[in-house]
Amino acid sequence: MRYGSAAEVRRSVCEGFRPAERISVSEGINRTLVTKDGPYSPELSPYMAQPADRLDSRKYRAVVFIGPGRCSKTATLIDGWAVRNIRYAPGDMLIVQSSQDLARYYSKQRFDKIIKASPKVRERLSTRRQDDNTYDKVFRNMVLAFGWPSGAQLSGRDFRYVAITEYDLAADDIDEEGSLFTLGSMRTQSYMSAGMTVVETSIRRVYTDAQWRPKRELPHEAPPAGGATLLYNMGTRNWLYWQCRECREFYPLNPDVHVMFGLDPIEHLANKLTADTLEDWVRHHACIACPHCGAVAKEDQRRALNKGARWVPDGCRITPDGEIIGEQRETDIDSYQLSCVAAGYAHWPKLLRDYGVAILEYQRTGLETGIKETVNLHQGRAYLPFALQGKRKAGHELQKRAEEQRQGYVPRGVRFLTASVDVQAGKRAGFVVKVLGWGPHREHWTIDRFHLRHSEREGEDGQPLLLDPAGYVEDWQRLVEKAIQRRYPLEDGSGRTMPVRVTLCDSGGEDGVTSRAYEFWRQMAREGMGHKFRLVKGANSSNAPRVEERRPDARGNKQSNSGATGDVPVLFINTDQIKDTIAADLKREEPGPGFWHFASWMPTSAFEELTAETRTAKGWVNASKRHNEELDLCVYGEAAWIALQADKINWANPPPWAREWDENPDVRRDDEEEPPPVRVLRRGNRTSGVQL
Ligand SMILES: [Zn+2]
Fold it and tell me: Are residues 300 and 404 in the same domain?
């Protein structure tokens, strides 16, 4: 272990030590902290004073602070507390960053600069060179150590002060020894009530209980999202209250921007907000109304409101004279959640605009990671994925809205087609094929769905044999006529047809399927159809891109007999993210972006398969092992949309293949000549790296 000589060093530097002056922690920070940007300025974030002062409290063993990014929480509770301790209340201190890299960075970049800029800190630094290394710095009467979440890091050494930053980035369980909070706070135990642990973080979590609501009498509870939210909920749960400048009543700053800015529920915004109305929406909502008298506060009053603001624990209220009445929760954790509307560096119009832009991005692409990020990091609250919001529709409810439509015909509104193939093994061996029609902004129609069971091979009796996708590559040929090269008639009776633009096919499953699938792609490539056919596979990580093209190479892996030799492109898809998109789209009631049109000919089983899985915090699961082919086929369809980069189409001026029928060179009578290919210049980033 690197640690060791603190006591020795302490003896050598403690000469000249006088008992420290008793001042509050926040005052200690104000007097001591200088960063590379200049002296700490408490007037930008006066709300940090009380949480800082509680670090001296013997009543609490921990202070927990959650809130949006850029609200001075790290500067105050980590940097500030450290320099205050160095100057006024020496005691060994551990600062835990979320990784070893960040611990090194924090020590060598951020804290070294603070030492350099803060004369009152610098003069306490030991002058012995060996006392200043990356993970341990020795000051007069104390050692400041920098650690990261690991069982070994967090055991064996005692600290009076432990500060954990960006807590939500850490795993829930550190090396199977417990939560970071448990491990960290254990280190302060030998100091008893003089020990203190601080946790501060931006929120980076989702929660999955759509039914969750705070209790009426305890409205400050945060949603059950784990991480720091869990610690916050165990504590006193302080919210900041502003005093209305008109009626002098205090009112709570709810961390939910929908409450503070009077926004519609997000599912309404996802349907109603448009690029044209965004700026009006921002202007209209960038103000806060007092719930007592209705007086409106604008952002330019925030500084004054923050100055007179008060923290109020859950279960209590505050009178216009500033008296806090009621009984706070019995707990040894003092906890705070700051609403982004009070955060010193956040601008209301920008908060709203960023949120609106993320919602528009979701409308266009079905991807909600941008919304989650703004809700987590800018707004400072846990996020409930769309898939879990509102009431989920059962299969039979979806079937009720099926539209009168002929199987195998292309309805008006459809701009291009994709096919999805699910490879079946065992008793049901064969291919299940679904053809989807796509309109602008991801409006979907089901054009066709069928189960291919027979091969073109004949048995001794002259009858076709059952398909065997794992055994015969020639059985895969049936997909050429039935999907890859297929054209579907338009429903307008003009005799024109529309081609399937790309076919995505599952490549996993029974032994042998993968290598046959690869062989078949090679055959397609040789016949010039490689760009019209893609194999797909589920990606392993929940952070994987929604669709990413890779060329797997299993040579050198003796366990694998997939036959992958780095030549066959495979689309790796993040099925959880795509299922989130589908589940959210299925809740849309009216035709438009993301809407699913169902056809009257679709069997009841398809609707049951589509709703077979359940979303958990960790992803989608098929708990009762129901058939789920329809859901898989729809996932491949969404992946095809992304692989074709249809999410990047400007629908005011789409590429030729996505235009209306009369202007679409792919739509024609079968006896017409194929027009020469239209050259289209590709613009923008090909982020997915897909080459179709
Ligand atoms: Zn008022």
Answer: no
Residues 263 and 336 in one domain: yes
Q: What distances in angstroms separate CA 31 from CA 41, 93, 119, 306, 493, one per listed residue? A: 10, 20, 11, 21, 82
Between the CA of 298 and the centroid of ligand 1 the distance, in Å, is 13
Strand spans (E) along 399-429? 416-424
The arithmetic mean of pLDDT across residues 191-215, rounded, is 92
Residue 197 CB neighbours (<10 A): 26
Residue 540 and residue 471 in one domain: yes
401 in the same domain as 379: no
Q: Which CATH number belongs to the domain containing residue 91 in this structure?
A: 3.40.50.300
Q: Considering the chain, what percentage of its residues have pLDDT values greater than 90?
A: 67
Instruction: Establish if 649 belongs to a structural domain.
Output: yes
Distance CA 475, CA 224 (A): 51
Ion ligand 1: residue ranges with CB closer than 5 A: 244, 246-247, 290, 292-293, 295
Kindly report, residue by residue over 325-373, the tens digit of the pLDDT: 999 999 999 999 999 999 988 899 999 999 999 999 988 888 888 999 9
In-domain check, residue 185: yes
What are the tens digits of pLDDT across the range 274-326? 999 999 999 999 999 999 999 999 999 999 999 999 999 999 999 999 999 99
Q: Say if residue 188 is in the same domain as residue 235.
A: no
More confident position, 232 or 464 = 232
* Count of CB atoms situated within 10 Å of the CB of 316: 16
Q: Tell whether 679 is covered by a domain.
A: no
What domain range includes position 556?
395-669
> Hey, what's the torsion of the CAs at 219, 221, 224, 228, to 10 degrees?
160
Distance 306 CA to ligand 1 centre (A): 15
Domain boundary among 351, 386, 421: 386
Specify whether 360 is located in the same domain as 415.
Answer: no
Helix (H) or strand (E) holding 132, with range, is strand 132-133
- What are 612-616's contacts with CB under 8 Å, separation 24+? 613/579, 615/208, 615/385, 615/387, 615/388, 615/579, 615/580, 615/583, 616/208
Q: How far away, in angstroms, is 300 Cα from ligand 1 center?
A: 17
Å from CA of 53 to ligand 1 middle: 29
Distance (Å, rounded) from C-alpha 264 to C-alpha 451? 44
CB 552 within 8 A of CB 568: yes
Distance 244 CA to ligand 1 centre (A): 5
Separation of CA 222 and ligand 1 centre (Å):
25
In a domain, 685, yes or no: no
Return mean pLDDT, the chain: 89
291 Cα–ligand 1 center, Å: 7
Instruction: Tell me the mean pLDDT in the region 154-173.
Output: 92
- Region 648-671: mean pLDDT is 93
Residue 289 Cα to ligand 1 midpoint, Å, equals 8
Q: How many domains does one find in the chain?
A: 3
pLDDT-based confidence at residue 680 (cuts at 50, 70, 90): very low
The HSE-up count of residue 421 (CA atoms within 13 Å, CB side) is: 29
Instruction: Mention every residue, 6+ apart, whose C-beta is less than 8 A from residue 71.
Output: 45, 48, 338, 340, 342, 343, 344, 345, 346, 380
**Mean pLDDT in residue range 381-405:** 85
Ligand 1 center from residue 286 Cα (angstroms): 17
Hey, what are 367's tokens?
Answer: 């991807």
**Separation of 294 CA from ligand 1 center, angstroms?**
6
Last residue of a domain, one of 356, 386, 416: 386
Q: Do 456 and 597 share a domain, yes or no?
A: yes
What is the reported pLDDT for 229? 96
Span from the CA of 243 to the centroid of ligand 1 (angstroms): 8
| Same domain membership, residue 432 and residue 342 | no
Give the predicted TM-score (pTM) of the model: 0.75
| CA 400 to ligand 1 centroid distance, Å | 49
| Distance in Å, CA 634 to ligand 1 centroid | 51
Q: In the prediction, which pLDDT does 131 show?
A: 76
Helix 25-32 with 81-88: angle, nearest 10 deg: 90
